[in-house]
Design a protein that fits this description.
Number of domains: 1
Order of helices and strands: HHHHHHHHH
Radius of gyration: 20 Å
Shape: globular
Largest sheet: none
């Protein structure tokens, strides 16, 4: 079944003139804007989902397990769905709900997840709609970071947000190291608390002010166009999510013919 046949007529009318690449560029910005956080437990807070998989538990399966050599859900998705990526490795982000459906199936696979308790926990978690929405954010952000490392993001807006998160995590790690060293010295506790408060207040503002400046300078038009079609993208993702339990076949006919159109930032809706 073609993806376009899964979309409501109302949404199809609005998106029919936009290619899969255009919709995916907007979906990429949507994922970055909606879900990107400094820590993954801010996307999937354990306190909001008691008795369900935590962000730490879910990430343990999304990531590769180095000790056992078990491939993570992200790597398995990339391997099993090459049609969801362009020839240059860029992801068609509108398939995020399909990726979550794949994750659900793998976490119920006895050959992949040996623990019956873990399979039961995953099943219970995927039955909770709000948890699935948050887990989609975790998987989506991990995918954007994976793509960013390979220079395969489509939009400057998403690049800026992902880069801001990377910078913030690095700053937090460096600051924590400085504080730990200071605690072992003779620095008064009140002074450490004051320094920590100053960093918490100033650094995020500096980093994200720079991000907003970059988006405005390099991707302003791109982002404004995304805002115009954002409601349609949300509906598209919802529609695919409703149908994501279906086994989607090869969808190469939906992809641009003659190779991917390599566009400059801001020209995805040209």
């Amino acid at each position: 079944m073609e993806l376009t046949k899964l979309i409501s007529k109302h949404t199809t009318r609005k998106l029919v003139m936009r290619s899969v690449e255009d919709a995916s560029a907007a979906a990429e910005i949507f994922i970055a804007e909606t879900y990107a956080r400094l820590y993954f437990n801010q996307i999937l807070p354990a306190r909001d989902f008691p008795g369900l998989m935590s962000s730490h538990q879910f990430l343990a399966w999304v990531n590769d397990h180095r000790q056992s050599g078990r491939p993570g859900l992200l790597q398995l998705y990339v391997k099993n769905f090459p049609q969801h990526f362009s020839p240059s490795g860029r992801w068609y982000a509108i398939y995020l709900p399909v990726a979550l459906s794949f994750a659900r199936e793998k976490l119920s696979d006895k050959d992949y997840v040996r623990s019956a308790g873990t399979r039961a926990l995953a099943k219970k978690s995927f039955e909770n709609e709000e948890w699935v929405r948050a887990a989609a954010g975790v998987f989506g952000v991990k995918m954007l970071e994976f793509l960013a490392e390979r220079g395969a993001l489509r939009t400057e807006a998403a690049r800026a947000i992902v880069e801001a998160n990377r910078q913030m995590r690095q700053i937090v790690r460096e600051f924590a190291a400085v504080v730990n060293r200071a605690r072992r010295g003779d620095v008064p506790e009140y002074l450490l608390a004051r320094i920590e408060e100053m960093v918490r207040r100033s650094v995020p503002v500096q980093v994200f002010t720079e991000v907003l400046r970059k988006i405005d300078a390099q991707a302003g038009w791109e982002y404004r166009r995304y805002q115009e079609i954002k409601p349609d993208i949300v509906e598209l993702l919802r529609e695919v999510a409703r149908q994501s339990s279906l086994q989607l076949p090869e969808q190469l006919e939906l992809l641009p013919s003659g190779g991917e159109r390599e566009a400059l930032p801001g020209t995805f809706w040209a």
